[in-house]
Amino acid sequence: MPHISVRNLTVAYDGQAILSDVSMDIPDRQITAVVGPSGCGKTTFLRCMNRLIDMTNGARVTGQVLIDGEDILAPDADLISLRKKMGLLSQKPQALPMSIYDNVAYGPRLHGLRDRKQLDALVERYLRMSSIWEEVKDRLHTPASRLSVGQQQRLCLSRGLAVEPEVLLCDEPTASLDPVSAQRIEQRFTELKQDYSIVLVTHILRQARRLADYIVFFYMGELVEHGPADQLLNDPRDDRTKAYLSGTIS
Amino acid sequence: MRLRILTERLTTGWIVAISVTVMLLTAVVAAALVHRSLPIVEGHSLGALLGGSEWRPLEGKFGFRPFIVGTVWVTVLAMALAVPVCLLAAIYLAEYARDATRAIVRPLLDVLAGIPSVVHGLFGVLLLVPLVSDHLAPWAARHLACLPGATPQQGYSTGYCLLTGAIVLAMMVAPVIISIADEVLRGVPVAMREASLAVGATRWETVKHVSVRFAAPGLVASVVLGFSRAFGETMAVLMVVGNVAMSPKSLFDPAYPLPALIANNYGEMMSIPLYDSALLLAALILMVTVLAFNLLAQGVLVVARRRAAQ
Predict the structure, then answer these.
(1) Is residue B238 part of a domain?
(2) CA atoms within 13 A of residue B237's CA, in its CB half-sphere
(3) pLDDT tens digit string along A178-230?
(4) Is residue B173 part of a domain?
(5) CATH code: domain of residue B241
(6) Collapsed DSSP state (helix, strand, coil) of residue B5
(7) pTM score, two decimals?
(8) Residue A11: pLDDT band by 50, 70, 90 thresholds?
(9) What is the total count of domains within chain B?
(10) Which structural domain, as residue segments, surrounds residue B76?
(11) Inter-chain contact B200–A57, Cβ cutoff 8 Å?
(12) Which residues of A touch B209 (CB under 8 A)?
């Protein structure tokens, strides 16, 4: 049973289809790269998986996204435990308006962890896991907004990991980073896939080549092709995939 | 060609001149007030004027204390009534309401803000004054006897009192506060809200820990702007507050705020020495206070907007 399974997912915004009839399974404990030209529905696809699509006014979602067999698009789905399960790393790092420490402790505190020692240990563990601990350990209680963009993105990764998700949803997580910071985030991903399923939306084909085990290609709201990275990159079946890989459509 | 350049210079010149004139008006008003209130400040110490509680112009006693106390109480009470309600309303509008609801409510707020203050005053006289004298005051006399400030002094109130003034004032400033607070909360980046929701926070937790915290300076500014508006409001308060020159001891006592003092008395009994100067000093106090609050609020808003834009 695959962890995430998408069935006939269709999203329309003010009557205009953004995603049409997408069905696929997302493999466990692998990095799945979602690629395609901008505006093809990659981000919308990702936002369906943690229901942040609800925040978009006028979006109509039909179909099913099954996580462990449970349809998360059902109106009575438990959003809190869903979002706890699906960590998010957004395109532009969004540090919450609080200290570095509180950013990481934010989720666990909401979910009921109060013990100071446990929180301390947890904050350190996840800051280490996103390799930012050494840079911030002496100023944990200063505002997170003072960190550089690259550091903020790693902090956001810690914050996402701290609620112990099972899946990481990443929306072009290196797009606003300098090359060194981007590389650091990428390194983390290759380690993290031991324990997490990672869905990585990216418009950088080379990043998909470097990281992905499995690739999903969207074009104008349509799921064109998906398969293991080797097969899709080296032997694409659809002409549109070929055109995208060779750079004639972007 | 020469003509075009000449026109350009002339146009620039008169536009700048007009703009400067408009801005200078504030300074002119202030200067006039200072000039006209000087006689009374020369004859009396400022401490005696501001701290004195006797207002007997015929005997040359000009104690502003009751009026200052009245102004402060009416304003503070009005804010205490308005602020919690307004902030929650703004949170609802910015964070919970659908776009369609907002589209109806926002213009409605502007309409509310535009209701002439004399209409609010009439509303107060027709509805609130009887409500307070017939229901609230007797109720407070019966149930709140342990709180001297919350019960009518002789077990009875005319309804023209501090509380009525504060309620009318709260109604007047509410649209202003809601409107600005809503705008400030809308300035919280969507992605920041989503970052909070994405770790499993509920909507309310996100509002409490993220939106309100991020928007705090702007929310403070909205309250301060409401405060400065309330502080100088004249007509509506004057109509319902009782206008008795004494420091109120209870919610149901009449009060006499500074703007009401000026509006009621300027132009009458002007033959009394220094009377005119005393009223203009009152106006000066009012203007300086409101100006200070406005500057403070604008400053905070500028900072808040800059932060939101980042």
Answers:
(1) yes
(2) 36
(3) 888 889 889 989 988 888 899 999 988 899 999 999 999 999 999 999 999 99
(4) yes
(5) 1.10.3720.10
(6) helix
(7) 0.84
(8) very high
(9) 1
(10) 72-261+287-309
(11) no
(12) 96, 98, 106
